[in-house]
Amino acid sequence: MNVILIIADTFRYDCATGGFIVKGKPAQLRNLERLRREGASFDRAYTGSFPTVPNRHDVLTGRYTFVYSDWQPLPPDEPVLPEMLRQAGYVSAMIADTPHILKDGFHYDRGFDAWQWIRGQENDRYRTDPKDVELPCRPEKLRSVQTTVQHMRNNASRVREEDWIPAKTATAAIDWLNGNHANRPFFLYVDFFDPHEPWDPPREYVDAYDADWIGEEVTYPMYGPCDYLTSGELEHCRAMYAGEATLVDAWIGRVLDEVEALGLYEDTAIIFTSDHGFYLGEHGLIGKSIIMGDFYGSAPLYEEVAHIPLFVRLPDGLRRGRRSTISELAQPVDTTATILELAGLDCGKYGVQGKPLIPYIIGGGEPLRDFAVSSPPIIHRQSAGTRATITTRKWSLILAPAGPSSDAERMEFTMMVDGVRRVLRPYGKVKSELYDMSCDRLQQHDVLRGNVRLAMDLQREFIELLRGLGARDEFMAPWLNCRGLQ
Questions:
Q1: Which residues is 373 bridged to in the sheet?
Q2: Which residues pair with 46 in a beta bridge?
Q3: What is the pLDDT of residue 320?
Q4: How far apart are CA 432 and CA 477, in angstroms?
Q5: Cβ-based neighbours of 405, under 8 Å, separated by 6 or more
Q6: Cβ 58 vs Cβ 64: under 8 Å
Q7: What is the CATH classification number for the domain harbouring 307?
Q8: Do 300 and 421 belong together in one domain?
Q9: Does any domain span residue 230?
Q10: Are residues 350 and 234 in the same domain?
Q11: Do 20 and 45 belong together in one domain?
């Protein structure tokens, strides 16, 4: 079976499934809706290793890499998905515009028979002109003036929609399909950075959600509490995000149309997913972490960030009797396992820690897992106020390790979330939290105090998972004593 894997960065689950609302209007993503309708939607899929680079590390290796790795280059000695697929005679290609997995020697192209980097996203050092650009808002509202300027320079020559980066990425994928779809099985991995900020789709995409806005456009907002934005600016951020997502959806549609035109649906699986979501006012936050100048801190991974879309359209020959909506707790490592099973390969041979999803689509079975874990790298212990989210079918536990005070005080650095070196520093009150997802999907009522024993049971299961994944004792130790669980 051929496989096309599409990852769109920072794509909120609710945006991909019709629940993201801007000024009373849901985001209109007809192509992803088409893919969801024709395939299976895993409506309880959660990110594993967080954020962008750790997620790709999970996907390409099939392993929970947050237990031993950071935002870092792909290790040269780990088997990766395209190398595994080569054993089954596959030709593989990566078409990507996400800069952080390719620039600065990160080498996530390793193992692919061909790869193409569509240049110009975010702080990609692509162009040095025009020298002067006009910022879209006051500089103090921007996460980085330098990155905003770089991105604007990179994309200053756009005229038609085809000049936007998602269009270039989709066009390159279509070109590769036309030249390589015949006579051999293929694996095509398409990685869109959008709808990651800076949000700058063609004007009509934003106007579809907020045509009357006349104020500043905070296209690259500072991460943290969102009270520096007016209510109108925050709502316009939601409109710009929805416009960017709609642009990506439009060009994913072009890829799907080409798959159909080439007659590939009979023997081609298509998987769409994301690495994480983004706060746009929920929990008083904007972003996915805390970035203030030269400092980086972790934010709790609530549903808006941890819950991800995962749509799987099996080849037509496997779609009989399929289930359209599946409530198993799926994670990125399961995507890797699914691709290997489609290729007829044994996941265990490569140390993949996920499970194939096909049985759950065509016939069900035992629960995929009892809980999903979403976590930043744990190798810095609690230096940044690191918290892991443990999600069950009913509960969401945000677990904050206590650990020795020296962990929080130690001077450490990270390259998250954009390759810029920052000091790790906790922000605000770092605590454990518990939410009953059966009646509190918005996670507004922390019920930890009345359910400490339940939370301690989940903590023990998390520790057992870390141990089973081979976490080093020094990285596991802080989680033995968590805040609010004494």
A1: 390
A2: 307
A3: 63
A4: 16
A5: none
A6: yes
A7: 3.40.720.10
A8: no
A9: yes
A10: yes
A11: yes
Per the listing, tokens 């979403």 go with 374
pLDDT of residue 428: 84
Residue 302 phi/psi, 5-degree rounding, is: -75, 180
Do 347 and 430 lie in one domain? The reply is no
**pTM summary value:** 0.96
Per the structure, the complete domain to which residue 443 belongs is given by 372-480
The verdict on 227 and 257 lying in the same domain is yes
Q: Is the pLDDT of residue 215 over 90?
A: yes
336 and 376 housed in the same domain: no
Report how far residue 131's alpha carbon sits from residue 129's, in angstroms, rounded to the nearest whole number.
5
The two structure tokens encoding residue 9: 């960065």
Q: Which of 362, 381, 414 is the last residue of a domain?
A: 362
User: Are 50 and 332 spatial neighbours (Cβ–Cβ below 8 Å)?
Assistant: no
Last residue of a domain, one of 306, 329, 362: 362
10 Å CB burial of residue 357 (0-12, 13-18, 19+) is: buried
**The dihedral sign for the CA sequence 260, 174, 46, 281:** negative
Residue with tokens 């141990």: 467
- Report yes or no on 367 lying in a domain: no
- HSE (side-chain half, CA atoms, 13 Å) at 344: 8
| 293 within domain boundaries | yes
Which range is least confidently modeled, 73-87, 292-306, 314-328?
314-328
pLDDT band at residue 268 under the 50/70/90 scheme: very high
Residue 409: is its pLDDT beyond 70?
no
Widest CA span of the chain, in angstroms? Answer: 61
The 3-class secondary structure across the chain, one letter per residue, is CEEEEEEECCCCHHHHCCCCEECCEECCCHHHHHHHHHCEEECCCECCECCHHHHHHHHHHCCCHHHCCCCCCCCCCCCCHHHHHHCCCCEEEEEECCHHHCHHHCCCCCCCCEEEECCCCCCCCCCCCCCCCCCCCCHHHECCHHHHHHHHHHCCCCCCHHHCHHHHHHHHHHHHHHHHCCCCCEEEEEEECCCCCCCCCCHHHHHHHHCCCCCCCCCCECCEEHHHCCHHHHHHHHHHHHHHHHHHHHHHHHHHHHHHHCCCHHHEEEEEECCCCCEECHHHEEECCEEECCEEECCCCCHHHHECCEEEECCHHHCCCCCCEECCCCCHHHHHHHHHHHCCCCHHHHCCCCCCCHHHHHCCCCCCCCCEEEECCCCCCCCCCCCEEEECCCEEEEECECCCHHHHHCCCEECCCCCCCEEECCCCCCCCEEEECCCCCCCCCCCCHHHHHHHHHHHHHHHHHHHHCCCCHHHHHHHHCECCCC
Q: Which residue has the tokens 């390790």?
A: 401
The CATH number of the domain where 392 resides is what?
A: 3.30.1120
Amino acid letter at 386? T
Pairing state between β 372-374 and 295-297: unpaired
